[in-house]
């Protein structure tokens, strides 16, 4: 069965690609950034709607799944007794009004790892509370891109909600074998930017961290002085992120939406080189035929903002299996009671 979804805060369509690869159809998308909209048009041949705050929820087509990787904003609770449930003035409010009007069977929300502790945990609490008030049963977990066959240590908070009372079970999500940076590197086509040997320092005895990262050295730039002890240059944390160098035998740190110069350096075949744009898009699970248009700086920003496609594919497959297919059974069961067999009742019990 083909399910319909809407793609809110669509970016370059990471959510969309993952759901389309699971046979689902996009019926509406919204994105405010001009460059992201151009890329979306180039890749999906579709104009997105613009600012979601200006879109009447009644005009959004009916859909089965709502997808949103929305920006994280605090909810003000000061001086307002009802404030704890008040989401007005935030972009989550727009998700909430669409859910109230359209009641899709499933929702998937994505945010940064620290979302769970944002505003001392209030933000997550308010959102789960708001979703439950509309009728959604929710569950959430921090998922890491590196567990989905992509060599990037990128942790994200994922919230899944269902309208049919089923609590999504994250333990059923299939974890894949890790891969390494060297698996996604392009062949040297003469376009690779290498550092000269006097531009960096390699440390002695690098170690693989639990995250899979192997910090091997740093660019010879200023280190953090404040609170730093002497002889700590072998520690990654004294070097700013754009100066750190990681081995291609490990995973890569999180690509950042704020990095427009593409300062991602890897040690590979005894040389230090910058990742190419294509390699950054591979690190998020996009295929090489994904069209990259516009300035390099904007393309780096876009990819740092995206969701990792293979992670979405696995979530999509589980949401179909755990929530949507069971919802279909309930709907099929909604026939006059006298026509129901014992089998129908057992399905009710199974999913209820
Ligand atoms: C974290 S990114 C989501 C990226 C997306 N999941 C992807 O795979 O590329 C959030 C997006 O929300 C967009 N955005 C922010 N405010 C918006 C608004 N009022 N209406 C529509 N989009 C908005 C931003 O431009 C940004 O692209």
Brief descriptors of the model:
352 residues; Rossmann fold; 6-stranded mixed β-sheet; 8 helices; 13 strands; globular
Tell me what the structure shows.
This protein folds into two domains: 4-173 and 307-351, Vaccinia Virus protein VP39 (Rossmann fold, 3-Layer(aba) Sandwich); 181-292, Alpha-Beta Complex (DNA Methylase, Chain A, domain 2), CATH 3.90.120. It has helices at residues 14-20, 34-44, 91-102, 122-134, 277-283, 296-305, 309-333, 342-351, and strands at 4-8, 25-29, 65-68, 106-112, 137-144, 152-153, 155-162, 200-202, 215-219, 244-247, 252-253, 265-268, 271-274. Mean pLDDT is 89; it is low at 77-84 and 335-352. α3 links the parallel β3 (65-68) and β4 (106-112). The strands form three sheets. Strands 2-1-3-4-7-5 form a six-stranded mixed beta sheet. A five-stranded mixed beta sheet has the order 8-9-10-12-13, with no helix packed on it. It has a two-stranded parallel ribbon with strand order 6-11. It has eight helices and 13 strands. The protein is of the alpha/beta class and 352 residues long. α1 (14-20) crosses α7, α3 (91-102) packs parallel to α4 and α7 runs antiparallel to α8. The structure holds S-adenosylmethionine. S-adenosylmethionine (SAM) binds at residues 9-12, 14-15, 30-33, 36, 51-53, 69, 71, 91, 305-307.
């Amino acid at each position: 069965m083909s399910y319909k979804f809407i793609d809110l805060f669509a970016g370059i369509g990471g959510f969309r690609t993952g759901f389309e690869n699971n046979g689902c159809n996009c019926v509406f998308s919204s994105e405010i950034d001009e460059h992201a909209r151009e890329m979306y048009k180039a890749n999906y041949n579709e104009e997105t709607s613009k600012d979601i705050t200006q879109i009447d929820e009644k005009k959004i087509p009916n859909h089965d799944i709502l997808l949103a990787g929305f920006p994280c904003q605090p909810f003000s609770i000061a001086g307002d007794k009802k404030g704890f449930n008040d989401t007005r003035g935030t972009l989550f409010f727009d998700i909430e009004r669409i859910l109230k009007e359209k009641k899709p069977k499933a929702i998937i929300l994505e945010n940064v790892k620290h979302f769970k502790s944002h505003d001392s945990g209030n933000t997550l609490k308010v959102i789960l509370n708001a979703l439950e008030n509309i009728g959604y049963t929710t569950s959430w977990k921090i998922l890491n891109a590196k567990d989905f066959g992509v060599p990037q240590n990128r942790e994200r908070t994922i919230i899944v909600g269902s309208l049919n009372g089923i609590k999504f079970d994250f333990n059923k999500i299939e974890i894949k074998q890790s891969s390494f940076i060297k698996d996604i590197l392009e062949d040297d086509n003469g376009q690779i930017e290498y550092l000269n040997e006097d531009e960096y320092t390699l440390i002695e005895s690098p170690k693989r961290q639990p995250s899979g990262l192997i910090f091997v050295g740093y660019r010879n730039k200023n280190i953090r002085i404040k609170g730093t002890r002497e002889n700590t240059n072998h520690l990654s944390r004294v070097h700013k992120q754009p100066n750190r160098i990681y081995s291609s035998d490990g995973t890569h740190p999180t690509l950042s939406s704020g990095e427009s110069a593409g300062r991602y350096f890897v040690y590979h075949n005894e040389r230090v080189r910058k990742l190419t744009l294509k390699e950054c898009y591979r690190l998020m699970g996009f295929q090489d035929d994904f069209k990259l248009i516009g300035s390099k700086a904007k393309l780096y920003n876009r990819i740092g903002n995206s969701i990792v496609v293979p992670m979405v594919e696995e979530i999509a497959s589980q949401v179909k299996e755990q929530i949507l297919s069971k919802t279909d059974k309930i709907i099929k069961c909604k026939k006059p009671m006298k026509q129901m067999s014992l089998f129908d009742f057992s399905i009710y019990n199974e999913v209820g």
